[in-house]
Design a protein that fits this description.
The complex is a heterodimer.
Chain A lengths: L2 E8 L2 E8 L6 E6 L5 E6 L6 E7 L3 E7 L7 E3 L14 E8 L2 E7 L2 E5 L7 E4 L7 H4 L12 E6 L7 E5 L3 E5 L7 E2 L19 E7 L2 E9 L2 E5 L7 E2 L9 E6 L7 E5 L15 E4 L7 E3 L17 E3 L7 E4 L5 E4 L7 E4 L5 E9 L1
Antiparallel strand pairs in A: 1-2, 1-28, 2-3, 4-5, 5-6, 6-7, 8-9, 9-10, 10-11, 12-13, 13-14, 14-15, 16-17, 17-18, 18-19, 20-21, 21-22, 22-23, 24-25, 25-26, 26-27
Chain B lengths: L1 E4 L14 E4 L4 H11 L3 H5 E2 L3 E2 L3 E5 L2 E3 L10 E6 L5
Parallel strand pairs in B: 1-7
Antiparallel strand pairs in B: 1-2, 3-4, 5-6, 5-7
The chains are: A mainly beta, B alpha+beta.
């Protein structure tokens, strides 16, 4: 029987939640990573390793890794330094493991790679020459939170091809392992003036359908969008959602038309609208949306979920998981139709990843 | 030998690193170099590229605020502090 492992990154370390395929009873282990603030923690399906991007106010940024499902952890930041002395690496944000290596997106914006399980790192690219590059590392032009290169989406079949998200600027694609790049933001809406229509979009979460390499979805600052050509063009699919704003998003593992988001109030609060906890699903690629809230708190639930805060497993009937900025983890074992709280008192949650083992 | 005192946040990161140890060094920078030789990566936890001390790492030599170039006497006491921050 498969084991389900949730990896939860929080402001006070990393936690591991475990269950069987029923996904009803959960055991919580942690905190790990010595209580360091963890921005993003991921599982590498190929090696079984866990990686956690963390940044200590005292001791700087690094990546913790565990090869025994969290029993022991090691921290390293060797090589996680910009070669350009004008760029200071303040945090590691976009973390992904694919094709036998780990990629880390950083602020100031850059991509570092590790081919030895996060023991050492080397700089792969800072997207030099791309539109916006001269501005996005300028502290005066940084958005609040300044995540830098916030996310990396690998192509499942082509190791040298991946997409990078620069906060406040948009998506860039490389097909030659970072040697060259192209902006992939055509069709996105911006509610602010743009000097260059190629860039200037605040992409919060970019995901790919596991069953269609050309089908991408994104939640950005002002709406939901879908691409049917691997990001070369985008179509807005916000209509039917309660707000256009949100952070987290997840693609259904078996159905290219299905996709989940968690709309939030777009102002300072950035909580679920009306204090009513809900996940929203489209089953027709964004033509219509449906509220999923059975088992979630119906009132006085002012929950926020950050961009790495939702995950979906790969079982035949997929499980869905999200973690909140107030420390709750909610899980569904039936594609989001019903939910239960599986942890209630964790520190503020930054990320949730899920692994199916065995 | 300088009498070096480290913050409690460091030993969990490096096997067998004590809170207090004697270091043969003539400056704060050299003391950190000696630590990094024995516990690789320790310099990165105290210094940013440059190197310069990290913003919330404070060093005192014989109770006086110090920098990387501050000289050490054979019996200097060096306190490395993680400044009060966070919540």
């Amino acid at each position: 029987m498969p084991q389900i492992v949730l990896l939860v990154g929080t402001r006070k370390g990393c936690f591991v939640l475990e269950s069987d395929a029923d996904r009803k009873d959960w055991n919580v282990r942690g905190p790990f990573c010595d209580g360091w603030p963890v921005y993003n923690a991921v599982h590498d399906p190929a090696s079984g390793a866990l990686y956690a991007a963390a940044a200590s106010e005292w001791h700087g940024a690094g990546v913790w890794h565990s090869n025994d499902l969290g029993e022991t952890w090691t921290l390293s930041s060797e090589g996680l330094t910009h070669s350009d002395p004008t760029l200071r690496l303040s945090k590691i944000t976009g973390l992904t493991a694919a094709h036998g290596r780990v990629l880390a997106g950083t602020e100031a914006a850059g991509i570092f790679e590790s081919t030895n399980g996060a023991a050492t790192w080397s700089l792969l690219s800072t997207l030099d020459g791309q539109p916006g590059r001269d501005d996005w590392n300028d502290p005066a032009k940084q958005p609040p939170g300044h995540l830098g290169l916030a996310a990396i989406l690998p192509h499942p079949d082509e190791p040298a091809r991946f997409w990078a998200v620069i906060q406040g600027y948009g998506i860039f694609e490389t097909i030659d392992d970072g040697a060259s790049w192209a902006p992939r933001n055509r069709g996105l809406r911006a509610d602010w003036p743009l000097e260059d229509p190629e860039v200037g979009y605040c992409v919060h979460k970019l995901v790919m359908s596991p069953v269609d390499r050309n089908r991408l979805y994104q939640q950005n600052h002002v709406g939901m969008h879908r691409s049917d050509d691997a990001g070369r063009s985008w179509t807005e699919i916000t209509e039917g959602l309660p707000t256009e704003f949100g952070f987290a998003a997840a693609a259904h593992p078996h159905d290219r038309e299905s996709f989940y988001v968690i709309p939030l109030d777009p102002g300072h609060g950035r909580c679920m609208p009306g204090g009513r906890a809900s996940v929203w699903r489209t089953s027709d690629a964004g033509s219509t949306w449906r509220r999923l809230d059975r088992g979630l708190p119906e009132r006085d639930a002012h929950l926020g979920v950050l961009r790495e805060g939702m995950a979906v497993d790969s079982l035949d009937v997929p499980g869905l998981y999200f973690g909140t900025s107030t420390g709750q983890v909610f899980a569904s074992n039936d594609e989001g139709e019903s939910w239960s709280e599986i942890a209630g008192y964790l520190p503020a949650i930054s990320s949730v990843d899920v692994a199916v083992l065995g | 030998m300088a009498d070096l005192h480290l913050p409690s946040t460091l030993p969990p990161l490096f096997p067998d690193l004590p809170r207090r140890l004697d270091v043969d060094a003539t400056s704060v920078r050299e003391a950190i170099d000696r630590l990094d030789e024995r516990w690789p990566g320790l310099r990165d936890r105290l210094c940013e590229p440059g190197p310069v001390l990290r913003p919330h790492i404070n060093v005192y030599v014989d109770r006086e605020r110090a920098g990387l170039e501050t000289p050490l006497e054979p019996r200097s006491r060096v306190d490395v502090l993680a400044a009060i921050s966070g919540g």
